[in-house]
Amino acid sequence: RSLKTFAQAPIVVVVSVVARAAMSTGTCKSYNAGKGFGFITCADGSEHFFHKSDIVGKLPKQGDTLTFAVEQSTSKPGQTCAKNVSGGTVGGDLEGECKWYDETKGYGFINHNGESYFMHVSNITGGTPKEGDK
Fold this sequence. Notes:
By secondary structure, this protein is mostly beta strands. The protein is built from no helices and 8 strands. The chain has strands at 23-32, 37-41, 47-51, 65-72, 80-86, 97-102, 107-112, 115-120. The strands form 2 sheets. Strands 3-2-1-4-5 form a 5-stranded antiparallel β-sheet, with no helix packed on it. The chain has a 3-stranded antiparallel β-sheet with strand order 6-7-8, with no helix packed on it.
């Protein structure tokens, strides 16, 4: 009998490392709900742009303390922007469907779980609600 020797190939283990951006904290300098963007100022004086699609939770208002990740801008090379922005305080805790809204009077009602809730123009951000909006 003869024994055959086989060369064993080295085992290569590939480990994928996903870099997680460190979370930063700053103050909402401004947020324009109509245009859907704003700016955050950090304690070191740096300023970061953010888009409404990067907001997690409630919308921010000027002065809110926000937590976010700083990433390189994909549209403006060499600049940074804020992602996963949280800590906003605008809006209530309920979500529902617009029952009706009278733009001339500045108020309307939202249905939530069979109950109607009053809404006033001073508490609305991001445009005029229309019947059926969620």
